[in-house]
Amino acid sequence: MMRFSVKAGCALLSILATAPLAAEPTKLVKQGTATQLQVNGKPMLLIAGELGNSSASSAAYMAPHWKRLKDMHLNTVLAPVSWELIEPVEGRFDWSSVDALIRDARAHDLKLVILWFGAWKNSMSTYVPAWVKRDQQRFPRAALPNGQGVEILSAMAPATLDADSRAFAALMAHIKATDDKQNTVVMTQVENEIGMLPVARDYGPLAEQAFRQPVPAELTTYLTQHRDTLVPEMKQLWEGQGAKTAGTWAEIFGPGHEAEEVFTAWYYARFANGLSAAGKAAYPMPMYVNVALNRPGRLPGEYPSGGPLPHLIDVWKAGAPAIDFIAPDIYFPNFVDIVHRYKRPDNPLFIPEANNADHPQVPGNAFYAIGKLDAIGFGPFSIESVDEKPGALGDAYDILDQLAPQILAAQGLGRMSAFRPRALYDETIIYEPVTETIGDYRFTVAFADIQKPVPTPETGNAGGIIIQTGPEEYLVAGQGITVTFRPVGQGPGLAGIESAWEGRFDASGQWNAGRLLNGDQTHQGRHVRLPPGDFQIQKVRLYRYQ
Known about the structure:
By secondary structure, this protein is an alpha/beta fold. It contains 16 helices and 25 strands. Helix 7 (158-179) packs parallel to helix 12 (257-282) and helix 15 (362-373) packs parallel to helix 16.
């Protein structure tokens, strides 16, 4: 008979009591009208940046960057993991690059969003293993109308989805085995900027056969059930052909390239859905797809056809229910217009790529996405390229880092908004003041500096955020804005500034006041001014009088 001493039992219980347990899974949760990312049981705002495509493949290359990224006030890094690195030989996995990535991020108290470069990266299939590239019989390429293959794996091939899913599921299982107690990895991007080039659809044998078949009932049912809320382009396309619920792609969506692109979008969405489902079965966490946007006036194939573009969101929502949201990569000037297309009740906003990190409009865009549209997070591209001289982005991220608790507390509850000049696609900037009610006061935000009222190129980079923290208390943060205010509702009809303090929140969240600005800096109580180029926070208390 095995004997078990009381002393040994107590020791075992002590070990079990102190052993780390699996953390609460990362998940998306609702707060009012907002969706937040919950990490370790608490909401988290991703103050992020995306690495260059090849950077994460070398731990040595990344070694000097981790501390600098942390010093820039990032809390999250978006980092690629490529299929070719983790499965160089079919069925044999090498986790060294993944383990180094997680180890080094964790050592610097940074979270990770993993970007899975599997079957497609920027439309192309250049990150797949050599054993996939060389076996065109098993893993067929998409084809042009003349039958010539392109450097893009066909989404129609079951073997490609099976192989990609096995690798992705193995990756997620490995992350769970090595990270479920810390939750260093908080989200995963499925593929990267999916889309067909240089034509609207695949013309390979499998695609040709599928294009002649009836449109799947799942898509037509979705269109019927969501008819009143379809995006304008899809509603017009479908209804323009009679809103049919049965027929071929050409019969339901017309004889031209529009039907071909909807066909492409459907099969890309189904592929991404299968991949996401396989990954979540191994380790459930939020998963999303990103999108390379289309330039106005271009035809499908001149841009990546069939990706989760604004006019195709409904197709992706119908075809990929396992995908939690669609995230736009925004390199065009009309940032404000684009983000409003992707902020939907069924689609929380996340910006994984927001121009290059050194672009002057990036800080203002970050404030707008987070403060106006309750974005889960924001991440400019090639973040490691600016970490030695972060400039305005570092200053903006410092402010967002300080304000994160207040932002998270206000999201979805009508107590916060953000402001920036609206730029059009042709780079024209709309400088008119913006007015919005927050709490019991109506704020007007002007972007031309009160001391230099003629707009300059720098005026287009202005941006700010206003957060209500009490009945008459507000935090005003950013740069290049002048804020005036009037009361709304019952009570005296004029408003003044009781106090306006500049200051900082320390690491514990304690407010440390600086100067009291009730003087020339507020134009004797007439406005709150955040000078151009000087990112700051002011804590303002208003009052009413008559």
